[in-house]
Amino acid sequence: MSRARITSVAALAGLCLLMGAVFTAVPTLSARGENKGPETAVPPSTALWQTEPPDSHPPFDSNACLLCHTDTDETITFPSGEELSIQIDAATLATSVHSNMSASPLACQECHQPPNNYQYPHVPFTAQSVRDYEIMNSSACERCHMQPHLTSHPGPSSENPVVCTDCHGGHDVQPAASWHTGANVENCTACHEQQGVQVTAEGATAVIQAGLFAAQQIDNAYCLSCHSQPDQTMTFANGDVVSITIDEAGLHDSVHGASNEWDELLCADCHQDYTFPHEPVSDVSARQYSLNQNNLCQRCHEDQFAKALTSVHSAALMEGNLDAALCTDCHSAHDMPVPNEPRSRINETCRQCHSSIFDEYAHSVHGEALIEEANPDVPSCVNCHGVHDIQDPTTAEFRINSPNLCADCHADEELMAQYEISTDVFETYVADFHGTTALLFAHEGQEGAQLNAAVCYDCHGIHNIKAPDDPESGIKANLLETCQQCHPNATENFPDSWTSHYKPSLQNNTLVYLVELFYSIVIPVTVAFFGLLVVVDVYGRVRRRRRN
Amino acid sequence: MTTKEKQPQYERFRIGARIEHIILLVSFTVLAVTGLPQRYAQHELAQNMIWAMGGIETVRLIHRYAAFVLVLGSVYHLFTSAYRLYVRRERNRMMPDLKDAQDLVGYVKYNVGLQEERPKMRKFNFGEKLEFWAVVWGTAVMAITGFMLWNPIATTNVLPGAIIPAAKAAHSYEALLAVVSIVIWHFYNVMIKHWNPSMWTGKLPRHQMEEEHALELERLESGETPWPQVPAPILRRRRIIFTVTSVIVGSIILAVLVWAFTFEETALITVVPTREVFVPLATAVP
């Protein structure tokens, strides 16, 4: 170094010393933790630096570095052949948020780590290239900025990383506030352009101002900063256009939302691996997207999911019917209500696809009570069909077991008493030919054996069940026609051969009652008569044997 | 009282009666084994029995075949009875009379010690007549009610519908009555108190004759034949007439029976109502 240069460096050093004296009230490192940082629009929850200094920092003196590095033509040559100037522009350094005159001053060695490598004479670099050096050196930022904010930019461990200094700069690092003014947005646009992605300055600024880069965790506010904006849509490769605007109130009131008694879910709990900016969605259609997302529900709802896998919906899906109901088709995705509150919601849910069945149900004795009176006892869809493990109701097995479904309520004395409905229905059914056959078929459990005896719904109807004495379509209105469904040759008298679920009495099924009465006398009398004769004979034999 | 020494044997049943008994025994047993589990279908044991026999539909078929055999056996009995009464000119010894009532009273008195002498009974004693007429009654009830259950549509073409459940109740209770009677009375008399071989060998040992048929024993020991003898030429002529008549009448009855047992199928093989298969709407895009 020439004498002149040493002189000028010494003058600068002197100036610095003077300024240092002025700022004695600002102790260099120990004061940093108390700094509240610049007063900017940065969201309050996002402390961008740690509050404690690194574990150790050796004595340092930036001035010593600057003695040489502010006035030099020298360069470092990397093994890659690249050359890098070691000249530091003092003016640039002075604009840095970490300059000696700033609120959070740093010495050179705070970033140029480890300090021992930077004692004079310096230890040679191990970096192979300028880029290599930048990547290695950016790790020093994390000494203080231990929780870097979220970004989808690939980190230092990736093949082609974007590191802190790429955006924030090295010696001229700016306060975070400056990013919100759009001042440094050309860092974004330049780099993206280089990668072949057109990013406008306004767009980049808007994203930054939305706080997307400042957030440290993806909470719902983070996502909703964009997704609560109205009229946002997304177009899938097949042309499906779906709204990506989320109804904030609906989300809040959802079973997964903040207003329920359970833990609130975060957007990212379901939409996993979503960072900002988003990776493009690879699903070609909206349905494909839903199908691929469906598995997420089982992370919490394992039992329900396992049951659903055994359902008729899952079976249809496996057979390639992509319209078969998924979790979200019934429960919806974002404004998910409690599925059975009110109970009529259940029917409305099924109605979305099974509308013609719903129409039948809505006019049935059960449906009318539920829809019009909010009756808590009548069956909704799920009481008969199950909830998640909904089975195919057209199978032989379902048919055979169906009387038990009806009996669940209709044999419940307490429940039926409220409506003055007889609970003899199941017992009298099983006691009769149809029911006995059904019972035995159920016991035999022959796979696929079609029960040819009538079950409850063959006579009473399925979804369109009416009260038996309904004048228009109750079962009593035209019983013969009902019988003829299975017994086509049945004539006028035939329906009376059915006991109408009445236990035999003098009033109902009188003939059966009389027959039973007859035998209830004849059988005990016969048994007693023969029994007595046998006893008498045995007695006589024993008596005679003893006598002989 | 069984004794060790060889007992003289006395003619009791000819081969025809023994064959009838076997037909009745087999068909009755099959009917009971396939029928009672249907009566008690709500019980696990009954369900397992039905399962073991091939399922309810098979069991019902077996029951109906056995019923056919029982009815055939009953018709056959009518023919053999006619043969014995009109060809052989045997006396009808099955009709109950006052002596049967006296024998019953005597039997009880003798056993409880109120009477020293055992009542002397005829070829068919009061207990056997009771059993015979119980079988006649039972078979008639079971055949008629069984036919109604088998052919409910044909039955209700003629009779009021309420007859069907009543027939079912009667069929069910009568079955119980029959089985209970057989087990208590018949089993006790022919197998438990002593082994009565007459339905297998046709003969009864002397001590059993003494105990149960003392009058018949006296009759046989006085040199009378067990059954009346008919001179050969007369027998031949009557046999020809009987054979021709019975073949004609028998064919008609058999034809009627086969028709009655096969003409109605809808009660056994009903049609399961077919329903429109539901096709759901396509799921709305979320």
Work out the strand percent of chain B.
under 5%
Q: What integer is the average pLDDT of chain A?
A: 80
Query: Which H/E pattern describes the elements of chain B?
Result: EHHHHHHHHEHHH
DSSP strand count of chain B? 2
Assign an overall shape of chain B. Answer: globular
**Estimated structural class of chain B:** mainly alpha
Can you list the strand order of the major beta sheet of chain B?
Answer: 1-2
Largest sheet of chain B: 2 strands, antiparallel
SSE string of chain A, helices as H and strands as E: HHEEHHHHHHHEEHHHHHHHHHHHHHHHHH
User: What is the radius of gyration of chain A?
Assistant: 42 Å
Major β-sheet strand ordering of chain A: 1-2
Low-confidence residue ranges of chain B:
none
* Biggest β-sheet description of chain A: 2 strands, antiparallel
Distance between the termini of chain B: 93 Å
Count the DSSP helices of chain A: 26
Largest interface: A-B, 77 and 59 residues
As a percent range, the share of helical residues of chain B equals: 55-70%
Low-confidence stretches of chain A: 14-59
Q: How many separate helices of chain B? A: 11
**Oligomeric form of this entry?**
heterodimer
Q: Please report the total strand number of chain A as a whole number.
A: 4
